[in-house]
Amino acid sequence: MSWIDKVRNGIPFLPKRQSEDQLWHKCKQCESMVFSREWEDNAWVCPRCEFHDRIGVKERFKLLFDKDQWEELPSPQVREDPLKFKDSKKYTDRIKQARAKTGAKDALINAKGKIEGHRVVVGVQDFGFMGGSMGVAVGAAVVAGLRAAIEEKAPYILFTAAGGARMQEGILSLMQMPKTTVALAEMKEAGLPYIVVLTDPTTGGVTASYAMLGDVQIAEPGALIGFAGARVIEQTIREKLPEGFQRAEYLLDHGMIDMVVHRHALKDRLGRLVGYLTGNRDAA
Predict the structure, then answer these.
(1) Model confidence over 209-250: pLDDT tens digits?
(2) What pLDDT sits at residue 14?
(3) Residue 258: is its pLDDT beyond 80?
(4) 54-277: which CATH number, 3.40.50.880, 3.90.226.10, 2.60.34.10, 3.40.50.2300?
(5) Domain extents for the chain?
(6) Residues forming beta bridges with residue 45, ordered by sequence position
(7) Are 173 and 134 in contact (CB under 8 A)?
(8) Which of 219, 153, 161 is nearest to 187 (CA)?
(9) Quick one: how far is CA 58 from the chain centroid?
(10) Distance between CA 54 and CA 45 in Å, rounded?
(11) d(Cα 49, Cα 111) in Å, to the nearest integer?
């Protein structure tokens, strides 16, 4: 290091040079190098190939709620390590690590606010928190979000992203599938819309329960959606799967979801849907 660099770095009010990792983002699909600021301003979508990257809870809320205003709902209190599970690391240590990484208590966070003037409750599953895996806390959060929507007499919009059930909680994780399904029945009895937005990836027990029970099923472009992995299916049926199998566009063509919506158009589309489904068509 030259004496000029030493002097420059020693001056507290001069900003240090940003690293290449901070300045540039490499697209996972086309491998183009994009300015990080441009990538974020484009809603974390590659401006070259339109690849929709995974985003966190706060980023999702900022894209959705009017005037960037929302009220985060408290996470339900659950027993954190019911099976005292340990593999190469204690389950409690994995939870602490995920919380430090994401700033969230668990993989699903609820908030209430307005989308295009309509009152809604929104739940967002964060793949960055232990792969968005469904454990007791996630199941409790889905139920809490649904009941908050019933109390508010508002639709519940759920953004799913998960690798499936959380193995560290064993059978208790799988029990969240019927638990959330029963809570959805309460939502339907109240006559309120339940809209699901499937993001990359939505797989396993989440797909086999609340992710596929929406009144309207939306997906982001290119999202991986399925129950078992493609390789497992190929080994089971001993056939080669078609191109794009389990991607949002393939599922749309085969009637499994209702629409694929670009992230830029998602807020407007959700606002219109909520307006129609709640009878407020003039606002929609």
Answers:
(1) 999 999 999 999 999 999 999 999 999 999 999 999 999 999
(2) 40
(3) yes
(4) 3.90.226.10
(5) 18-53, 54-277
(6) 52
(7) yes
(8) 153
(9) 11
(10) 9
(11) 31
